[in-house]
Amino acid sequence: QVQLVESGGGLVQPGGSVRLACAASGFSLDYYSLGWFRQAPGKEREGVSCITRGGITDYQDSVKGRFTISRDSAKSTVDLQMTSLKPEDTAVYYCRAYSLNRNYWGEGTQVNVSS
Question: What is the mean pLDDT of the chain?
């Protein structure tokens, strides 16, 4: 079965850190660009960060310097290290694997930033 499964979400205090992980099963992530997206209540899903097959990364302006995306071919995972978290980072976070003719989404993991 082809799927992406996110983990690592939860409740974190403002200024804290959390690491999200996304693991692939049933396929290899090597042939895909990878991304993290998020959707806050009442808002549309938005891109947070992405990483190409060659390791080139990009970030939404609001998370630059705070979030770091990484991929591990051996483990077939893509992680998102989030630091200096703010209440506005509260959202469901989704990982995505995409190519010209394939597009896979995970089910999402909730991150709540609150004191």
Answer: 96
